[in-house]
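stage 2 :: seqdesign
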């Protein structure tokens, strides 16, 4: 059972890494891929918590989910201010200095 969960987490991490590498221009897709990485680590913590009958992994996963929510709120604020200034949400315009 644990190997199936490892395989699921590994595939989620690989999908999110390829999503980051292939979609470098779209900020929203990049943020979603980072959130999928956090989800994979959360699934891993919960699986270990259930396997070892320990609640500590579930507490860690709660904090990881809270961290992901704070990160999403911060990125959303940055995107709104970026759109107001640049009128675009692509990474190409973010990397330009003028």
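stage 2 :: out
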């Amino acid at each position: 059972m644990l190997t199936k969960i490892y395989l699921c987490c590994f595939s989620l991490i690989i999908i999110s890494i390829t999503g980051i590498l292939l979609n470098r221009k779209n900020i929203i897709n990049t943020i979603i891929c980072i959130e999928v990485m956090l989800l994979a680590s959360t699934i891993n913590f919960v699986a270990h918590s259930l396997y070892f009958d320990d609640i500590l992994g579930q507490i860690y996963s709660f904090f990881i989910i809270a961290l992901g929510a704070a990160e999403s709120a911060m990125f959303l604020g940055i995107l709104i201010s970026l759109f107001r200034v640049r009128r675009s949400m692509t990474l190409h315009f973010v990397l330009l200095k003028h």
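stage 3 :: structure notes
- Residues 56-86 form the longest helix (31 residues).
- The chain has a mean pLDDT of 87.
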